[in-house]
């Protein structure tokens, strides 16, 4: 968990964006809320149903860092992630860890992505999914929305 910027106030991990695109080569747009289906992914997204990497996640903190370091103006969805998180260090997650977001349950199946993989999306020449993104499969579906809390369930706790 991270500091929210207010003294003594700890920010709980939460979902800040739900993003989809109609084509795999396009950036995603934040739709605010969406439906995750078990074994499929996010309804309306071009990556849903293709393989076990059904949903991608990037931290808002990673987007903000990329903006500062590269002088760009990326926003949630700019790096082709489905779910943008805040207050959760995604790089501490391991394969098999689970995330409860609202009613949905996701399982981490891949951390990062080879940068030369087909369809690795970059925003203004910057790509963060290869080193800071995670990929999950949907174990339990449900409606997720901006503001939903995120609970981490470590593999050994399942």
The strand order across the widest sheet is 4-3-8-7-11-10-9-13
The count of strands amounts to: 13
Low-confidence runs: 1-8
Q: Which CATH architecture? A: Beta Barrel
Mean pLDDT: 87
Inertia-based shape? globular
Main beta sheet strand tally, sense and closure: 8 strands, mixed
Strand content: 35-45%
Total of helices: 2
Gyration radius from CA atoms, angstroms:
14 Å
**CATH superfamily descriptor:** PK beta-barrel domain-like
N-to-C series of helices and strands:
EEEEEEEHEEEHEEE
* Total separate domains: 1
The share of residues in helices is under 10%
What name does CATH use for the topology?
A: M1 Pyruvate Kinase, Domain 3
Report the structural category: mainly beta
CATH hierarchy, class: Mainly Beta
The separation of the N and C termini measures 21 Å
């Amino acid at each position: 968990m991270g500091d929210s910027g207010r003294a003594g106030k700890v920010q709980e991990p939460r979902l800040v964006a739900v993003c989809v695109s109609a084509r795999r080569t396009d950036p995603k747009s934040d739709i605010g809320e969406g439906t995750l289906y078990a074994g499929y992914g996010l309804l309306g997204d071009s990556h849903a149903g293709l393989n076990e990497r059904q949903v991608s996640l990037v931290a808002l903190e990673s987007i903000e860092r990329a903006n500062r370091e590269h002088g760009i103006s990326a926003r949630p969805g700019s790096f082709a992630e489905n779910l943008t998180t805040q207050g959760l260090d995604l790089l501490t997650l391991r394969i098999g860890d689970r995330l409860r977001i609202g009613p949905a349950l996701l399982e981490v199946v891949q951390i990062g992505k080879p940068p030369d993989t087909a369809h690795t999306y970059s925003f203004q020449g910057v790509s963060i999914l290869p080193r800071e993104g995670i990929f999950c499969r949907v174990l339990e579906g449900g409606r997720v929305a901006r503001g939903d809390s995120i609970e981490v369930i470590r593999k050994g706790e399942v």
